[in-house]
């Protein structure tokens, strides 16, 4: 699916202006930091650059499953565990601003109820594990999700209505691979019956496939060398340690991951109604917005919208007015899904980079805002994916790889995740290198 000459030209223009913007922004930030340092230096103080300190409490480093077992066995008080986590949050949140809303007091009251329930001794350990597998475990919830008792954060785009619900895939995020299945069983609810989590997995019998990059999309950055090295190291370890053959594949349609995602997210709903576009949301109470004009205003610092928002709006316009290309991309999405399902079968996994670049600095994604397509494409294809950490880069940034399987074969990706954790060390506490 080739882009038209006009589309290629527009992409080059966007890249040029975004690159120029990032260069100027970087220079401005350096000058600002230098002036700030001199001003503080004149007052006899220097700026303190701080990083997140490593966890200093052993409880913070235990898997959720182990903590839940200790609570059920009355070996650990829920209140004590919660207070340990609250103290940690208060220690690091001023540095990273990860928690935007807390409910510490309410959580402590709930923890006391849990401890009272356990002290009454009316439920044995086996019964508690079956009814409340995560009893007493502190959890955090992303602010974009509706949570009982908390004002919802409306305005997330794309919205999950109609067929888009199938593209909104939310899974557990945890530090240890052993906790993935535990959390997945809880989050899946009645749909857990569709999975095969109780099926035994022989890693030596899995068919492994590998692809190091998307094939060269003009919308995405090339894969970083350190990510490639980690990918190849993983493949080599699988072949050496398990004695399996990892087959390198070149799936040409992956090059169009972003275009496929964009078209599928903006396609008509099942009742043939047009979905609300991102450009519609940019308007103020129905006032029309022209993304191309906003781009001109943005370059003159007159637009009230961000560059990624404008770029997405322009992309929507390009796809909307090219019905023939849209039809081809929609067909390509179905063809790619069929190709992947046939390739993976019931006993195959696909190794793919989690992201083309290492964790970027602030504002860096402005220059290439569509790198998320490396993960988003699998939401469109409806395939289960487990993201696996592979240690840290030379600069202390996380490395990772995606493990993809056929529909409802999450047990394969989870088994590979547990193996890779043992092989490469898994999650590394912050502040370490």
Please provide a written account of the structure.
- With 433 residues, the chain is an alpha/beta fold.
- It has a domain of 84 residues.
- 47% of the residues lie in helices and 7% in strands.
- The chain has a five-stranded mixed sheet, with helices on both faces.
- β1, α7 and β2 form a beta-alpha-beta unit.
- α3 packs antiparallel against α4.
- This is Fatty-acid amide hydrolase 2.
- It comes from Thamnophis sirtalis.
- One of its GO terms (molecular function) is hydrolase activity.
- InterPro entries: Amidase_dom, AS_sf, FAAH2.
- Keywords: Hydrolase.
Characteristic terms for this protein:
47% helix; 433 residues; AS_sf; alpha/beta
Please render the helix and strand layout as text:
Blueprint (H helix, E strand, L loop, with lengths): L4 H38 L21 H9 L5 H19 L7 H17 L4 H7 L46 H11 L18 E4 L14 H18 L3 E3 L8 H10 L11 H5 L8 H9 L7 H14 L2 H22 L3 E6 L19 H9 L3 E8 L5 E8 L4 H15 L9
Parallel strand pairs: 1-2, 1-3
Antiparallel strand pairs: 3-5, 4-5
Oligomer: single chain
Could you say which overall geometry the principal axes of the C-alpha atoms support? globular
Topology pattern, helix = H, strand = E:
HHHHHHEHEHHHHHEHEEH
Q: Ends: how far apart?
A: 42 Å
Tell me the Rg in angstroms. Answer: 24 Å
Poorly predicted residue ranges: 32-37, 39-47
Please state roughly what percent of the residues sit in beta strands, choosing from under 5%, 5-15%, 15-25%, 25-35%, 35-45% or over 45%. 5-15%
Biggest sheet overview: 5 strands, mixed
Q: Could you tell me the mean pLDDT?
A: 85
Biggest β-sheet: strands ordered side by side in the sheet: 2-1-3-5-4
Helix and strand composition category: alpha/beta
Number of helices: 14
Number of strands: 5
Q: Roughly what percent helix?
A: 40-55%
Domain Amidase: 148-414
Keywords: Hydrolase
GO cellular component, one term: endomembrane system
GO molecular function, one term: hydrolase activity
């Amino acid at each position: 699916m080739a882009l038209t000459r006009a589309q290629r030209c527009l992409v080059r223009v966007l890249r040029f202006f975004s690159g120029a913007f990032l260069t100027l922004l970087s220079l401005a930030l350096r000058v600002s930091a230098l002036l700030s340092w001199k001003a503080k230096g004149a007052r006899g103080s220097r700026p303190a650059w701080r990083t997140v300190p490593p966890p200093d409490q052993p409880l913070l480093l235990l898997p959720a499953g182990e903590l839940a077992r200790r609570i059920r066995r009355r070996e650990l008080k829920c209140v004590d565990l919660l207070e340990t986590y609250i103290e940690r949050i208060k220690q690091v949140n001023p540095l990273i601003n990860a928690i935007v809303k807390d409910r510490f007091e309410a959580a402590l009251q709930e923890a006391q109820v849990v401890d009272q329930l356990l002290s009454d001794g009316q439920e044995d350990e086996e019964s508690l594990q079956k009814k409340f597998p995560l009893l007493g475990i502190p959890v955090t919830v992303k602010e974009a999700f509706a949570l009982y008792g908390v004002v919802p954060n409306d305005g997330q785009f794309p919205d999950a209505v109609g067929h888009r619900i199938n593209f909104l895939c939310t899974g557990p995020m945890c530090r240890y691979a052993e906790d993935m299945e535990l959390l997945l069983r809880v989050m899946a609810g009645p749909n857990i019956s569709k999975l095969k989590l109780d099926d035994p997995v022989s890693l030596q019998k899995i068919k492994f496939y590998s692809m190091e990059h998307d094939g060269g999309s003009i919308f995405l950055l090339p894969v970083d060398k350190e990510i490639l090295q980690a990918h190849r190291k993983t493949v080599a370890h699988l072949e050496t340690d398990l004695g399996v053959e990892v087959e390198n594949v070149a799936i040409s349609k992956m090059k169009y991951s972003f275009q496929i995602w964009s078209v599928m997210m903006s396609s008509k709903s099942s009742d043939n109604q047009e979905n609300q576009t991102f450009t519609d949301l940019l308007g103020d109470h129905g006032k029309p917005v022209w993304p191309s004009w906003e781009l001109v205003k943005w370059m003159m610092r007159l637009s009230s919208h961000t560059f990624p928002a404008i770029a997405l709006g322009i992309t929507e316009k390009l796809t909307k007015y090219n019905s023939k290309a849209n039809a081809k991309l929609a067909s390509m999405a179905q063809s790619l899904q069929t190709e992947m399902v046939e390739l993976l079968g019931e006993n195959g996994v696909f190794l793919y980079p989690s992201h083309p670049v290492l964790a970027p600095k602030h504002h860096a994604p402005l220059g290439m805002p569509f790198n998320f397509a490396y993960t988003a494409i699998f939401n469109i294809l409806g395939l289960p994916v487990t993201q696996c950490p592979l240690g840290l880069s030379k600069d202390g940034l996380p490395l990772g790889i995606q493990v993809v399987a056929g529909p409802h074969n999450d047990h394969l990706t989870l088994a590979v995740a547990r193996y890779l954790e043992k092989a490469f060390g898994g999650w590394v506490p912050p502040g370490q290198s």
